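Tokens in:
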């Protein structure tokens, strides 16, 4: 009898365990179905929000910067991959096409991102048709703008090597002649002479940016140094204004990493920050720091 009782109890325990297992499996399946449904709902909500954002509410954005602030990387890749916005780079169009532009450019209120608009532009057509109109304070007052800046001392160093030695030639003959003329002028100077000669122009460009940013409806300042040294924070600030896929974020990180060694023959020479400390004489840096003091302070660039 004892053996029969033990056997019955054992069978009962097995049945209870089996029942409990079935109930547990049922609950897990229910939870999984709820999780799947919730994910589908969230995906649908995100899609509808994106569709609403991208088709009806997205105001056009203007991307202002300077030469040698990774502007080519943003032109050729990042700005082309902004969700919900069509990219137009008027400067590149005017610079690479063998025609003269003499009619005003058009700017739509929604669904476009325009840029880079380089405040340091030197080409007459680009200045007259793009830079002057888009830096007009009346034009800017109802605009959303991104301003991508870099330590002006590093810009001067990078410009010297780019404009003097590595900037690619243009397929348009007249524009190639313009590049070669600038190259010859830059090569006649040492890097220190160039920096001291161009710094006043640099100050003017930065002051223009400061004034413009204060007049736009919405302005966001992005720093090259943050992209290099504090990438996550940089992306957070960027994505407060525009939406980009994680793939683009990862590509931007990879493409923006500084080179391990300086390459003076490359258009992208190194990408490092504070290169001026190695490339310029201490006495040159001292003069630049004095001239650029207000700008360095305004944007929290350390001396």
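Residues out:
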């Amino acid at each position: 009898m004892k053996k029969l009782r033990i056997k019955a109890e054992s069978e009962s325990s097995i049945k209870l365990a089996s029942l409990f297992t079935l109930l547990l499996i049922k609950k897990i399946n229910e939870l999984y179905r709820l999780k799947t449904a919730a994910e589908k709902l969230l995906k649908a909500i995100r899609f509808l929000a994106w569709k609403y954002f991208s088709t009806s509410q997205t105001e056009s954005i203007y991307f202002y910067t300077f030469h040698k602030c990774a502007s080519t990387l943003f032109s050729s890749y990042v700005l082309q991959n902004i969700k919900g916005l069509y990219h137009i780079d008027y400067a590149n169009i005017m610079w690479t096409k063998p025609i003269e532009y003499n009619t005003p450019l058009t700017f739509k209120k929604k669904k476009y991102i325009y840029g880079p608009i380089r405040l340091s532009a030197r080409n007459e057509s680009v200045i007259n048709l793009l830079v002057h109109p888009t830096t007009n304070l009346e034009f800017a007052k109802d605009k959303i703008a991104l301003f991508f800046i870099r330590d002006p001392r590093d810009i001067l160093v990078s410009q010297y090597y780019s404009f003097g030695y590595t900037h690619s030639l243009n397929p348009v003959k007249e524009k190639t002649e313009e590049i070669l003329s600038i190259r010859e002028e830059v090569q006649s100077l040492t890097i220190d002479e160039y920096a001291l000669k161009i710094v006043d122009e640099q100050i003017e460009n930065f002051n223009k940016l400061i004034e413009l940013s204060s007049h736009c409806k919405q302005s966001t300042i992005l720093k090259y140094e943050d992209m290099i040294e504090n990438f996550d924070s940089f992306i957070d600030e960027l994505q407060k204004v525009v939406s980009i896929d994680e793939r683009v974020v990862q590509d931007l990180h990879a493409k923006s990493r500084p080179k391990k060694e300086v390459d003076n023959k490359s258009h992208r020479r190194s990408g490092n920050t504070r290169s001026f400390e190695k490339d310029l004489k201490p006495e040159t840096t001292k003069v630049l720091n004095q001239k650029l003091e207000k700008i360095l302070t305004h944007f929290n660039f350390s001396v």
